[in-house]
Structures are given as C-alpha cells and as structure tokens.
Input
Amino acid sequence: MNKYNIIEFTNQEEYKKEFLDLPKRLYKKKEIMQNEDEERQILEEKHILSSYFEIHRFLTLDTNNKAVARAIVTFYKNDDSAYIGFFECVEDYELSKLFLKKIEDFIKRNGYKNIIGPLNCSFWIGYRFKVDNFGKPYFGEPYNKSYYPKMFEESGYKAFENYTSNIYNKVSKSQQNIKFSSRLKKMEKMGYEFIEPTIDTFDVQLRHICRMILNIYSKFPAYKPINEEDFFEMYRDLKKIVDCSMIKLAYYKGEMVGFFVAIPNYSNYINSKKYLRVIISKILKKEYILMYLGVEKEHLGLGRALAESMKEQLKSNRATSIGALIKSGNANKVYFKELIAKEYHYVLYNKSLEI
Output
C-alpha cells in the first residue's frame, strides 16, 4: 500500500485544491451535491460555525499527488465522541480500510471514545449516508457513492440511527384525510391562526422558527446547539429560493407554536450555480421538498393540522413532493402515508473505540 500517502494537512493551497477537486472526479454532473464555497470556508476555518468546533483535515494521495480519499475529523469540547465527515473515496476497499484506520488511530490518540459519522462538522451542515435508490439527488439530500456504507461497515462501524425519505404522489382533487381536515378546522375554531410568510415578514418569522428548531431538534443524534444569530445568518438567504405559499406557520395567542417548511426541488442546481434553472423550477413548482416540521409539545394535534394545510397547497399546485429525512420512529411518517410511492433510506454510523 506504499503507493498511497495519507496526510493530515493544514492550510496548504495545493492540498485544499485536491480536497475540493476529488468529488468532481467521482460524481456525474447530475449527481454532485458538493457546495464548494462552503467546503472552502470550512477548510479555512471561516465558516459561520467554525468557532463551535475543531477540525483536522485528512487526504490520501496517490503517486501523482492526486487525492483518492478525503475526510475531516471534528472535535467538540466536552464530548467523548469525535465526528468524521466530508468523506469521499475511490472504490478501493483496501484503501478505505487503511484510511479509516489511520483516522481512528488519530482519534484514539486524542482521547476520544467513539466515532460518529458521516457528519460534516456539524448537525447544521449535513450528515448521514444514503443507502439505496441512487440516481439524481433531490435538493438538500445527503448524497454519496453507493459503496460508502459498505466501506464504513467493513471498518467496524455500526448503524445506530436510520432515516427515510418518502416520495409522494400528487394529491388528487378528491384526496382528503377526513381526520386531518377536521383537525385543521377544529384548531382554527379554537383560535389557532395559520398563515404564510411574505418576503417582508420573512426575517422576523425565520427568527421565530429558529427559536423553535433549537429547542425541538435538541434531542436528535449529533445535535449541537448554536446561537440564534448564527442560525439566522445561515438560513436568511432561504427567502431568495422559497415559495412562501409552501411555508405554513401556526400561531396561538400571538405566538408561533408550529411550522411546516417546504422548498422547491432544485436538485443540485444551486450548488452548481445553475441559477436560471433555479428560477425556472421555482416558477414551475413541479416538486417540493417537505423539509422542516415542528410543533410545540403543548399543542397536540397541531402537526396533523399543518400537514393537512400543506397537503391542500400541494393539491392546489398540482405538485409531487418528498418528505425528507424522517427519523425512524418519528410520528411525522404517518402524515402523508396514503400518498407514498417510494422510500429512500439513510443511516448514521458509530464505532466504539473502547476496548
């Protein structure tokens, strides 16, 4: 295996270039989900979340000094687990075992007891491997080479969290869930207000969503809290790509208590900077990604009401949809079950380093 050189690098430009170029050599144009600007910010520790974690950059180079594998190891203070992310590798299982072992030894030497991955430095940036139904990815989907899960498993990683994305049919004109529609009407009579943001109100309402998300998602695996200002800066540009009719907000006595956010499926057009295609897909509204649903726990039944409101909007838009990355066991899975046409599956791995 001396044909490969595994290195940890810091800020050398030639190594940053190899790190950023590897995905372009591995994926077809329609499949690549790399956000190169964001990756460079992370490599240079200039990302808005960089102050929250410590990174270590790894590359495997061949005899021509071309990258054949890459990863970033992330450490957090007061956490016994280390995280591995931004993993890419050519299809060579001997190489992947060597590379992952080198990283494992590094993590052990630094006193960590567990490795979790893939996680791209932060819960808020990206995590999980896709395990089936490869082809053209949807917007926001974790996407990887089909052989990556096997590489992790052959290096001793075990799946400990599973996720599903549901691919939904269009909502027919006659489609109605009586139980959910009656719930929506009942909650409106109880004083709940269901509204949509506008471009003018978006920033204020994004802050309301932020406060809820930081609380509701706190029990998710690999979650790390961030402050409201950093969340706002990360997501404020959403207003440039959203269809406000596909954001449903629930208020009760003047306070936001629930939200359901869907975004047009831009596939990889935004990451690849095909902005004209983004504008066209936003106008055509052919498919939406149901991305974020949250309800304060005191407001039982509100999730069903928001789901019904969203389904009626999908019916009006005559659009298909994808329920993205639903954690196994999550109640959200039942909201559109009568519309499910297909399922995609994802996994998060861990490996104990304790003997």
